[in-house]
Known about the structure:
mainly alpha; Eukaryotic RPB6 RNA polymerase subunit; 71% helix; elongated
Amino acid sequence: MAILSPLEIQEMKIETSRFRLSQLAAQRAKMLIRGAKPLVETPYKKPITIALEEIKMGKVSYYGPEESAKIRNDMEKLVRDKEEAEVKAIQEKEKAAARAKVSKESDEDS
């Protein structure tokens, strides 16, 4: 049976309450209903049962508020760094184009 018993939760050392576990399973089931592919091979068809199987197999996990904030900050930093790199690349291209234009004009004057 796919449903996790309290004993299985203790054995797996899942660091969460049953409430969080049910929230996580519900959220993952909604993803499955919306078309997400299952992360594990399972004979089950119901999205909630598949979600519980994924949790049981360790394919889906829960991040608490602290971990979520850290992940969000890290992702925002990556996005900022990428945007800054893109801006620098554009600025370098503009400088190169301006140098080429000045060089072309000076060649025409000669």
